[in-house]
Amino acid sequence: MADLISHGLNVHLVGQGAMELAVALGVTSAELESADVAVFLVSAKDGIVRADSDKWLVARDLYIPSIVVITDLSATNETDFEDMAAIAGRILDPVVTPYLVLHQEDGSPIALIDLLTQNIRDYSTGVLVHGDSEHEHQDVVSEFRDEYQELIEATGEEAFENGLLYPAIPWIQGGAMGLLEIADYLNRIPITR
Q1: What mean pLDDT is reported for the chain?
Q2: For residue 77, what pLDDT band results from cuts at 50, 70 and 90?
Q3: Which end of the chain is flanked by fewer CB atoms within 10 Å, N or C?
Q4: Is 6 within the bounds of a domain?
Q5: H-type helices in 26-165, by residue range?
Q6: pLDDT interval class at 1 (50, 70, 90)
Q7: Domain tally for the chain?
Q8: 3: in domain
Q9: CA atoms within 13 Å, Cβ hemisphere of 81
Q10: Is 192 contained in some domain?
Q11: If you compute the radius of gyration of the chain from its CA atoms, what whole number of angstroms results?
Q12: Spatial distance between the Cα atoms of 24 and 1, rounded to a whole number of angstroms
């Protein structure tokens, strides 16, 4: 999957699993001060370490667009994606969740629902399959969708690119779920050099 990023971004990756994500995306981690974008990995199991939150403050001072990637999502964790995104939003800065995680009956994450389109991004087979959501899915996410749309309207379409809006995206290590969604945000960043 080394071709996920369409142009030569300087990406700074921070947190547990950063090397694995860099390899999966096909990027090399740059120094924060020279980065076009920063990706902060936050473990749903272990939380956020102080050194990473200190780097978050540096990225904010430099107005570097930043993504929060929630990792260690499994059926056995007490903290799920939505809970960890809320925690990250309190410790770092408020984050937005463009996708919510859908689970199998055993609690394992298998798909994402896109809040703007309400389409399902099913990863249960290991390969992305797009599908329509059911009415029950739309009911469950309607409040999240409304909040997300209001925030996008209030901040503008390029708020992420301007370092003013911070998406939280789930990533299942060793799998495809989340990689394309992270890459979509990274590919929105214009190269300024």
Answers
A1: 90
A2: confident
A3: C
A4: no
A5: 50-61, 81-91, 135-155
A6: very low
A7: 1
A8: no
A9: 29
A10: no
A11: 16
A12: 6
